[in-house]
């Protein structure tokens, strides 16, 4: 009788530990030994599986293990450039601590040791709809001056330039200078879509964590930029009533939490929820600054 050979990965249980389903299972990405019928059931089982998964993963890696993504601090360098905010070049910089990451940003942006760095933290889409647990954007102080965005400023800004000109600026089209399109988008506000960094120029740096406390990488930030970019189609109120817009955004938010949200144009083969910088899209390189 012919015997079927088994691979190291074929030792996974034949049923999802949550519901018992045995068909179309996806294996745990770390240990390859447990199968799940859905991401939701994988999340539900994570607390029970976590310790065993960590142990089994180490057994499958005879060489020195790399720290998990939750042990890393990732600084995403966002290169300046015109465009929709979806084409910015990015670089993942990996550090052992946030202190080291911020020190690196300070050096790159040319701050002195005594200067206080400008931190932009108002990111309603990322915080309220995508539930990032933290997020800070650092921009070049020599190229950016941000006035207080009061209601009066917004009124003057919009009517002074005209709606077409305003849209051009928000979408980074036809505006002179090295705008940082992605930096502009991720700071957009929920009430009117206007960004608190509408004139962001030069290279920028982002440090943040997802709803699970894992680092925001180039992949995750690209997904966030897509989220906000598509949301801009629902502004101003004459295009879409506020109530209808909020309902649409909350549907997106629920899908994002389940890791099922994708841009209308597709994800171009990019995992929007990848928090391991060493597993990100190849065209966004990763530089490891950690010391042994």
Written account of the structure:
The chain has 292 residues and is α+β, with helices and mostly antiparallel strands. It folds into two domains: 52 residues, no CATH class; 219 residues, no CATH class. β1 and β2 form a beta hairpin. It is globular and about 60 Å long. It comes from Phytophthora nicotianae P1976. It holds the Pfam family zf-MYND. This is MYND-type domain-containing protein. Keywords: Metal-binding, Zinc, Zinc-finger.
Feature tags:
292 residues, alpha+beta, 2 domains, 6-stranded mixed β-sheet, two-stranded antiparallel ribbon, 32% helix, disordered N terminus
The gist of it:
This protein has 292 residues and is of the alpha+beta class.
Please report the distance between the alpha carbons of the first and last residues: 53 Å
User: Secondary-structure element sequence?
Assistant: EEHEEHEHEHHHEHHE
Q: Quote the average pLDDT.
A: 79
Q: Give the helix level as a range of percent.
A: 25-40%
From the alpha-carbon coordinates, what is the Rg to the nearest angstrom?
A: 22 Å
